[in-house]
Amino acid sequence: MIQIEPIKAFNDNYIWAIINADKKTIWVIDPGDANPVLEFCIHHDYQLVGILVTHHHYDHCGGVKLLREKFNITVYGPKHDSIHATHTVQDAEIIFLPECHLHFKILFIPGHTLEHVAFYCEEENLLFCGDTLFSAGCGRIFEGTPQQMYHSLTKLANLPDNTKIYCGHEYTLPNLKFAKLVEPDNSDIDDYITKVTHYRNEGQPSLPSMLGLEKKVNPFLRAAIPAVIESAEHRIGKPIYNTVEVFATIREWKNNT
Ligand SMILES: [Zn+2]
User: Fold this and answer.
1) Distances 160 to 80, 141, 164 between C-alpha atoms, Å
2) Which of 34, 128, 156, 216 is the most exposed, fewest CB within 10 Å of its CB?
3) Which of these is catalytic: 56, 80, 84, 112?
4) Does the annotation count 55 as an active-site position?
5) Which residues of the chain have pLDDT under 50?
6) From ligand 1's centre to the CA of 23, what distance in Å?
């Protein structure tokens, strides 16, 4: 039996830990900082056995080097010098994490960065997606094109609705405020704002989210929905004839809010 818990880092990052409480082992995802991981291990008497990295930004992999120096661990990540992986992953490759008996499929999802990957576990419906899909939002397009990012988000949206979404940051409430600008009449967004506000007031993470819910509230997964198209057209004052352009328009809109 595994548990998944967030280790907080920096202002709003989550380093996710997959814990086998019987064996007292953990795998962590995107350790941007080694210290909170070390403290978490000491506090619970857990042994760090491996790391998964989604992309090369320092707040996701900045702690890998030090953790590798301290422990003899496996690090799966895409090809990039800053990641310090022991195993470079390939698209659609299946990796096995023996300490938690889980298989993960590697999904290449470029856009936020060009080498960005997600880790998908079908048997437990888990998705670790870094800075590509956020709850009610998506990452900025730093290295790829809107077309690539939209394609990557569509790839994630095609997973089962009960997939749990573990993303890299606590951005849900500000994302929902923007979602409401795009779709003022979407009552699912209102319901989710109420729920997330409650969690945050209690000091709890809003994550994991659920893919089925994201399809109802996340404007970046809803670029083919008439209300979102209309809103994007209103934003730029002209008709839009393809979904990627709707997506690019609302991404640009979000960058400027
Ligand atoms: Zn990033």
Assistant:
1) 30, 25, 9
2) 216
3) 112
4) yes
5) none
6) 32
